[in-house]
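Lab meeting, item 3. Inverse folding demo.
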């Protein structure tokens, strides 16, 4: 799914459907232009998510981001998942919102998810700041088996 520019990812995202259900552990990675993929790790680290590994959905509307630290996965930055209209195109998506007291910049971030194929999602990390245009950064999630070393 890599190698496309942001415009191509937004166009692809607008063609995708809402995931029917979401639970369990999903392995994540930034996707997009090469420069973005290279800078995503340091940018995530600056926001407190260095070593971002993916997401764990509890099937009840809760989600934890997973960080890889010293060979173990650690839970951080919990959020809530709900069905909503996309901030990008108004079509249905699964939206992850982070609590008001979250570390910056996550209080301004909304993750949106749509299904590419069975076990594969395209996410768009959207900066939801009223005075900025809707900036969206793509990431992929792939269903994963339960993972050892979770804390």
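The presenter then showed the designed sequence:
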């Amino acid at each position: 799914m890599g190698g496309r520019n942001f415009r191509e990812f937004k166009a692809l995202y607008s063609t995708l459907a809402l995931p029917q259900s979401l639970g369990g552990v999903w392995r994540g990675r930034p996707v997009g232009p090469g420069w973005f993929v290279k800078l995503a790790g340091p940018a995530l680290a600056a926001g407190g998510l260095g070593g971002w590994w993916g997401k764990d959905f509890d099937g009840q509307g809760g989600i934890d981001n997973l960080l890889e630290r010293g060979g173990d996965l650690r839970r951080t930055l919990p959020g809530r998942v709900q069905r909503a209209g996309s901030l990008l195109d108004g079509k249905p998506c699964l939206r992850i919102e982070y609590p008001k007291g979250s570390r910056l910049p996550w209080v301004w971030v909304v993750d949106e998810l749509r299904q590419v194929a069975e076990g594969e999602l395209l996410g768009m990390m959207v900066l939801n700041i009223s005075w900025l245009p809707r900036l969206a950064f793509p990431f992929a999630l792939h269903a994963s088996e339960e993972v050892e070393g979770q804390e």
